[in-house]
TrEMBL record:
Keywords from the named record: Transferase
The protein's name: Acetyltransferase
Record SUPFAM superfamilies: Acyl-CoA N-acyltransferases (Nat) (SSF55729)
CDD domains xref list: NAT_SF
Biological source species: Nonomuraea soli
Any GO molecular function: acyltransferase activity, transferring groups other than amino-acyl groups
Length: 157
């Protein structure tokens, strides 16, 4: 996406990031956070800003990606990605995923995990294309995904 910059989030992005989160449709909020956010608390905003990358276009945040140490999925890291409604379907999500995986791989991560709502067909199709060998397990309406980070693919782009 020409004109879109992916970069680490900075403290001075907090107000714009809060606007980004509150501007997401309820459907997009649920697909990413498994619930509606309403007005996100400062604590949640600060948590989501830790080690995060953002996509910025014309001075506005249009995407967010984060990686954190793997939890219940048994992966080295787990990721979460969300793109503003009007920018979905243009390839920004995969670009954010590549950027956050590259950063994690450079820090030693070899496997990635994510929880995806079972009804999030677009993301599940992308996962099947990107990681055909991924382990997918259905658990309480979500799909737990664990895959290898393929550095050769990340560095080839």
């Amino acid at each position: 996406m020409n004109g879109t910059q992916i970069r680490p989030i900075r403290p001075e992005d907090e107000a714009a990031f809060t606007r980004f989160l509150t501007g997401l449709s309820l459907q997009t909020q649920v697909m990413r956070f498994f619930t509606g956010l309403g007005r996100p608390s400062p604590t949640l905003v600060h948590h989501l800003m830790k080690e995060a990358l953002i996509a910025v276009r014309e001075g506005e945040i249009v995407g967010h990606a984060m990686a954190f140490p793997g939890g219940t999925l048994g992966a080295d890291i787990e990721i979460g990605v969300v793109v503003a409604d009007q920018w979905q379907g243009f390839g920004l999500g995969p670009k954010l995923i590549d950027a956050v995986l590259m950063r994690a791989w450079l820090r030693g991560a070899q496997t990635v995990g994510m929880d995806v709502l079972g009804e999030n067909r677009r993301v599940l199709r992308m996962i099947r294309r990107t990681w055909p060998e991924a382990r997918l397990q259905v658990s309480s309406g979500s799909v737990e995904v664990v895959a290898m980070i393929n550095a050769a693919v990340l560095f080839a782009e």
